[in-house]
Amino acid sequence: MDFEQADLEWLRKSFAVAARSRENGNHPFGAVLVGPKFEFLLEAENTVLSGNDITEHAEINLVRMALADYDPRSLALCTIYASTEPCPMCAGAIFWSGIGRVVYGVSEAGLYRLVGEESEEVLQIPCRELLAHGRRNVEVVGPLLEEEGLQVHEGFWGV
C-alpha cells in the first residue's frame, strides 16, 4: 500500500470516528493514529460536550492516549489522521508529542465557512503554518476528501 492510498483509507476512518463522536452527543471530529507500516494504533473522538472540557478535542484525546502507550521516537514515525484540520491547540499537542506526520480532511477555512466565520471561537491559524515554526519537521498533508469530510458536519452547527 502506498501513502496516497493509505492516506485516503485512514482519513475515511477518521470521518467514521467523527460520525461516532456526533452520535455520542459530541462535536463531529475524529482522529486516528497509524504506525509506519500503516498499522492501526489508536483512535479518539471529540469529547468536549460529554467531558465538559473544552480541551477534549479528538486530536488532544488521541495525543494523551499515544503518550501513555508510545515513546517519542516511535511517535515520530506515526501519522495522525484528523477528520478536520487541527486547531492551534491540537497542532501544538501534536508537535510536542513528537508525532511526525499529520493528514487532515476538512480545512480550517472550509469548516469556518460552514459554521460561520463570525463565531467568537475562531483562532484561525492553519496547522501547516503553526507547525512550520517548530524546530522539528512535522509533515502536513491536506486538505483531502474535503467534501466527503464535511458531510458529518451537515446540520450539526445550526446552519
Strand order of the largest sheet: 2-1-3-4-5
- Sketch the major β-sheet: 5 strands, mixed
Radius of gyration: 14 Å
Proportion of helical residues: 40-55%
Give the number of DSSP strands. 5
Q: Give the termini separation.
A: 39 Å
The number of distinct helices, counting runs of at least 4 residues, comes to 7
- Tertiary shape: globular
Output mean pLDDT: 93
Percentage beta strand? 15-25%
Helix/strand/pairing category:
alpha/beta
Low-confidence residue ranges: none
Query: What string, H for helix and E for strand, traces the elements in order?
Result: HEEHHEHEHHEH
What does this structure look like?
The protein has 159 residues and is an alpha/beta fold. 41% of the residues lie in helices and 16% in strands. It has helices spanning 3-23, 58-69, 72-75, 88-97, 108-115, 127-131, 146-150; strands spanning 30-34, 40-45, 79-84, 101-106, 139-141. The chain has a five-stranded mixed beta sheet with strand order 2-1-3-4-5, with helices on both faces. Helix 4 links the parallel strand 3 and strand 4. The longest helix has 21 residues, at 3-23. The protein is globular and about 40 Å long. The mean pLDDT is 93.
